[in-house]
């Protein structure tokens, strides 16, 4: 998936969120009203009733029922006697995902309609729309706001284009002027969100869906899709597909039809649900339909609607290893499972990719198992899920790495990473001067996140950039080295490239 231009948009069945695109491209207010018609306010009871009848669930990944969110905010606002706030999460921090950016750039008024409906129903004090600071869609949204009047003061807040910055709690913290990281404790925004007020927080597509449903009515809205999950969904298809695109389709459409339309050919596996999603086999993909229920039945997850097939011309283990390393670097670094556990998962996965050994595979399982259910947010769980399902789906590839010099395929970097840095913003790579190193081991004591000791007591660490959030630990490890053997290569170049690494001396 390209990093600066929204991919083409397609449609299977009736166009709803994507209606009018062929005629207008981007829908300004005039085109928007011509395509979708006027919008009338709803009461809180009517909004809850509509969302419940169409069985609308959040499109940000978790799939929480929207009517329950609205009801919780209404009850909390009544109990606290405080006006609520409506927050639209359009940050889309996952690198493969483009559906919300597509809505921002081409159908911004649908997002604003949904936010307006919620604000009318809740008698909200304010509407806040969170967007990433990558610049994609923000100007389009600003133009749309300038064309209309909203039922409450509305502002746009930009957040860093990082994986965790779009997490609900991280977005609320950012709006409140705090660090753009998850709060570290479980706290419902319906109870205390923006400025401590009851807050309705949902994804940009979710608000767009309720705007469509308010015009169509529950009967017409549920005329497409499955009975349990009616309506349409937006999918981002990338990876090895010949045509990267955002696709709108009704639930119940066979996944194989989506893959065919996008020109995806059979390969070792398909990532569904994004980087916190799961890998599934091509065989299981032929059985699945586009719905949360169907994906769960084959061991997958729909998540935020990302479909990323891998072809047979790239190394799947190498592709997965890049993402595990990236996810480890995207951590907030505020709890043990993230600071220590995720770098360990990444290190072990890198060793598995290099050797394919049974010991390395078990080490990945052990490291991933240690972080599950123990983090301050869902990041360790999602990363563990990604890594463990990769082991299952790429079992044959692991055997090829174990029995030979790898699978013989290059890593084509089909899974996007911002700036192609495995680990996000970096301070450079750790380098070791083997002529100086005496194996004191102090560096591993102060920097266990990345540095381990081998069987002879000498430091080992991955040949990958050190994430910015580990800068203080990295510099401390450099300072405590009595032999001055450890340093940072800020240019990211390998000064020892092409030179054989000497065997560590035994003490």
Automatic annotation (TrEMBL):
<dbReference type="GO" id="GO:0045333">
    <property type="term" value="P:cellular respiration"/>
</dbReference>
<comment type="similarity">
    <text>Belongs to the complex I 51 kDa subunit family.</text>
</comment>
<feature type="domain" description="NADH-ubiquinone oxidoreductase 51kDa subunit iron-sulphur binding">
    <location>
        <begin position="317"/>
        <end position="363"/>
    </location>
</feature>
<keyword id="KW-0285">Flavoprotein</keyword>
<dbReference type="InterPro" id="IPR037207">
    <property type="entry name" value="Nuop51_4Fe4S-bd_sf"/>
</dbReference>
<dbReference type="InterPro" id="IPR019575">
    <property type="entry name" value="Nuop51_4Fe4S-bd"/>
</dbReference>
<protein>
    <submittedName>
        <fullName>NADH:ubiquinone oxidoreductase subunit F (NADH-binding)/ferredoxin</fullName>
    </submittedName>
</protein>
<keyword id="KW-0479">Metal-binding</keyword>
<keyword id="KW-0411">Iron-sulfur</keyword>
<dbReference type="GO" id="GO:0051539">
    <property type="term" value="F:4 iron, 4 sulfur cluster binding"/>
</dbReference>
<keyword id="KW-0408">Iron</keyword>
<dbReference type="GO" id="GO:0046872">
    <property type="term" value="F:metal ion binding"/>
</dbReference>
<dbReference type="GO" id="GO:0003954">
    <property type="term" value="F:NADH dehydrogenase activity"/>
</dbReference>
<dbReference type="Pfam" id="PF01512">
    <property type="entry name" value="Complex1_51K"/>
</dbReference>
<keyword id="KW-0288">FMN</keyword>
<dbReference type="InterPro" id="IPR050837">
    <property type="entry name" value="ComplexI_51kDa_subunit"/>
</dbReference>
<dbReference type="InterPro" id="IPR011538">
    <property type="entry name" value="Nuo51_FMN-bd"/>
</dbReference>
<keyword id="KW-0004">4Fe-4S</keyword>
<dbReference type="Pfam" id="PF10589">
    <property type="entry name" value="NADH_4Fe-4S"/>
</dbReference>
<dbReference type="InterPro" id="IPR037225">
    <property type="entry name" value="Nuo51_FMN-bd_sf"/>
</dbReference>
<dbReference type="Pfam" id="PF13459">
    <property type="entry name" value="Fer4_15"/>
</dbReference>
